[in-house]
Amino acid sequence: MTTPPCRRTTPALWRRGAPAATRARDIPEETPLAVTFNRETYAVMLGTPANLEDFAIGFALTEGIVQNPAEIAALEVLEHAHGIELRMELPQPRLAALTARRRRIAGPTGCGLCGIDSLAEAIRPPPPVPAGQPIAAAAIAQALRDIEPLQTLHRATHAVHAAALWTPAHGIALLREDVGRHNALDKLIGAAARAGIAAADGMVLLSSRVSIEMVQKAAMFGAPVLVAVSAPTAHAVRLAEAAGMTLVAVARSDGFEVFCGAQRITTELHADVA
After folding, report:
1. Quick one: 123 exposed, middle or buried, by C-beta within 10 A (0-12, 13-18, 19+)?
2. Architecture of the CATH domain 135-266
3. What is the DSSP string of the chain?
4. Considering the domain 31-122 in this protein, what is its CATH number?
5. 31-122 matches 135-266 in fold
6. Is the CB of residue 89 less than 8 Å from the CB of residue 76?
7. What residues does each domain of the chain span?
8. Span 161-193, pLDDT tens digits
9. Catalytic residues, which ones?
10. Residue 82 burial by CB count (10 A; 0-12/13-18/19+): exposed, middle or buried?
11. For 29-68, how does the pLDDT look when each residue is reduced to its tens digit (9 = 90+)?
């Protein structure tokens, strides 16, 4: 990859209605990303050109195109004049299944669901999540503190989202960033799949609000607990309830709100929590 995730610029600075001394600033790149399967375009998203193998695999998993990364026969990241192609090759059985349920997505819209074939597909029921383990309230607070120094691209640009995976054994096991919150979560899911790290006993943390698709993706990941710093939408809560997921939002290091699945949150800090 030769496209950097951010660009250094020097904007004109104004303070109190008057010009001020200029200073350099990093701003994130937003690049067209074409997801293709066997040379056929499935979706074109806008995203940060970093961790793109993770994104491609995570997207294929959360779309239900593959069940595990081994079902992707080949993956190439190809730079073109106007963007980047994430070229995946599927074996014939998977390709036939994809053709049968083909759906196009307009990723840059921000909602992450526009352009699909039906209203029913937009609110498809999520799979049930594993029972998981109780999560201590103190562990949630600590995890929120721990992800801050790991958001290196956000510290540089103040303009990207993060998705992180916390497990009892490792604390923050993985973190990925992107200008798109859906992309950040797909990158995280792809990275976890490649590393063989399951979400079943841990929790996913988001620096963004919780929408329908964020719950759907987290459920496809098998995350029993989803934690976000912003509020959820009403239908996101309904989907989390349907999946049996614990949804924690408006989360800060000093407190949070549990919208459903409160039985998984405990005051006990277990000895195996990192």
Report:
1. middle
2. 3-Layer(aba) Sandwich (3.40)
3. --S-SEEEE---EEETTEEE----EEEE--EEEEEEETTEEEEEEEE-SSSHHHHHHHHHHHTTS-SSGGG--EEEEEEETTEEEEEEE--HHHHHHHHHT---EEGGGSSS-TT-S-HHHHTPPPPPPP----EEHHHHHHHHHHHGGG-HHHHHHS--EEEEEEETTTEEEEEEEESSHHHHHHHHHHHHHHHT--STTSEEEESS-B-HHHHHHHHHHT-SEEEESSPBPHHHHHHHHHHT-EEEEEEETTEEEEEE-GGGEES---TT--
4. 3.10.20.10
5. no
6. no
7. 31-122, 135-266
8. 999 999 999 999 999 999 999 999 999 999 999
9. 111
10. exposed
11. 999 999 999 999 999 999 999 999 999 999 999 999 999 9
Amino acid at 197: I
Per-residue tokens: 152:
């290196």
For residues 159 and 27, the answer to whether their CB atoms sit within 8 Å is yes
